[in-house]
Amino acid sequence: MLEEQFLDSARHDRQSFKSGVAELDEYLHRFAVQQSKKGISVVRVLIDTEMPKTILGYYSLSAAQIDVVQMDERTQQKLPRYPVPCFRLGRLAVHSSHRGLGLGKLLLGCAVERCLEAKKHVAAYALVVDAKGDDAQSFYKHYGLASCRDNPMTMYLSLVT
């Protein structure tokens, strides 16, 4: 059974995780635990309960803001003219041996669900993500994220229902 958990360096084998994207792998191997401890980001991993040490995928979330002028015109009309509070999906990666199984979609869904739950306690308008390449940009676009005006690799998804 698949389960989402907080990253725990004592329980999860970070070093064997390989997504095929060096930047995403290095983050999990070297920085994720430190940033979690320092309150910079929260890192959650997806595991199979039958192999609880093996990380199938992960994502990180943190607080963020985005300048309203980066959003589409319709959204701009609804929002104040100052930076809008958001959540940032800093990293999302799936182990290369588990690609094509829908785990990226599952992780994105988990991240959105976490944001919607947090939004009940701390206001945030959108989930912002920095796509790490054209494939990632296509992935996020497929799930409804829009590109920012000045940087199409920075994308956002409104959390307003």
How would you sum up this structure, described in words?
With 161 residues, the protein is an alpha+beta fold. It has one domain: Gcn5-related N-acetyltransferase (GNAT) (Aminopeptidase), CATH 3.40.630. The protein has four helices and seven strands. It has helices at 22-37, 73-78, 103-118, 134-142; strands at 2-6, 42-48, 57-66, 84-94, 126-130, 146-147, 154-158. A seven-stranded mixed beta sheet has the order 1-2-3-4-5-7-6, with helices on both faces. It is globular and about 50 Å long.
Described by its quaternary structure, the protein is: single chain
CATH superfamily: Gcn5-related N-acetyltransferase (GNAT)
Write down the domain tally: 1
Helix-residue proportion: 25-40%
| Mean of pLDDT | 96
How would you summarize this macromolecular structure in one to three sentences?
The chain is built from four helices and seven strands. The chain has helices at residues 22-37, 73-78, 103-118, 134-142; strands spanning 2-6, 42-48, 57-66, 84-94, 126-130, 146-147, 154-158.
Key features?
161 residues; alpha+beta; Aminopeptidase; 4 helices
Summarize the helices and strands and which ones pair or pack:
Layout: E1 2-6, H1 22-37, E2 42-48, E3 57-66, H2 73-78, E4 84-94, H3 103-118, E5 126-130, H4 134-142, E6 146-147, E7 154-158
Parallel strand pairs: 4-5
Antiparallel strand pairs: 1-2, 2-3, 3-4, 5-7, 6-7
